[in-house]
Each structure stands twice: as structure tokens, then as C-alpha cells.
Amino acid sequence: MLSDFSTLPAFAAYFGLGALFLAVFCTVHIWSTPQREMALIHAGNQAAAISLAGALLGFVAPLASAMAHSVSLADLAVWGAVAMLVQWLAHLAMRLLIHDLAAQIEADNRAVAVFAAAVAVSVGLINAAAMTW
């Protein structure tokens, strides 16, 4: 029975590093966007929730791929950083494509939010697949 838990330290380390990456991504993403997403979400703005959820899912997909395919914590850290960078570049591209993205999110334009979320998730899935080399 105890042998079943022999990999628990590795699980805890990978889970902990993954959770840390998620917290860092979420924090930096929220701080770097012009709109105050958490305040908007608390006020019932669905577009802000949709947009943020898409960004988180778009980041978690490649992070999960990196966790599944990494050979060490250092390997996971490198690929987690790559996943983070790619997702932020995708968000930057969305801000260039939709010049008033922040205003649209603040105005609760769910169509724009769904499009932004779909782009984030799509980029995240491509990124995840590319990490399987």
C-alpha cells in the first residue's frame, strides 16, 4: 500500500509548480490588462469573466501538456514560461486586432469576449500540441 504513494512527492512538486505558474499567470494577466477584470466580474460583467476564463484555459492547456511531458521540474519551468509568454503574445495580438478590446470588455460586449476567449484557447491548444514534440 505504501508503495502506491512513492510518487507522491513528485506529484506534489509538479502540482505545486503548476499552481504557482497559474497564480503568476493570472496575477500578471490581470495587472497587465487595462480593464479591471476582477472588479468587473464582481459587478456582474460577463464579458470580463468570459475573456479571463479563455485566457486561463488557453494557458492551462499548454501548462498541462508541459507537466505531462516534462522530464524534470526544471524542464517544466522552462516550458511553463514558454506557455506563459505565448499566451501573453496572443493577448497582445488580440489587443492589436481589436483596438478597443478593453472598452468592449468593460461595456460587457460578450461577442468580443467570446472571440477573445476562443483565440486564447485556440492558441493554447496549438501551443500544447507543439509541446508534445
What this model shows, in words?
It is a single chain. The protein is mostly helical and 133 residues long. Helix 4 (73-97) packs antiparallel against helix 6 (110-130). It has one domain. It starts with 7 loop residues before the first helix and ends with a helix. The protein has helices at residues 8-32, 37-42, 46-69, 73-97, 101-106, 110-130.
Return the domain count.
1
**Order of helical and strand elements:** HHHHHH
Helical percent range?
A: over 70%
Cα-to-Cα separation, first versus last residue: 35 Å
How confident is the prediction overall: mean pLDDT?
A: 93
**Strand content bin:** under 5%
The total strand number stands at: 0
Query: What does the overall shape look like?
Result: elongated
What's the number of helices? 6
Which segments are poorly predicted (pLDDT under 50) over 5 or more consecutive residues? none
Summarize the main sheet: none
Backbone structural class: mainly alpha
What's the structural blueprint in terms of helices and strands?
Blueprint: H1 8-32, H2 37-42, H3 46-69, H4 73-97, H5 101-106, H6 110-130
List keywords for this structure.
mainly alpha
Q: Can you summarize this structure?
A:
The protein is mainly α and 133 residues long.
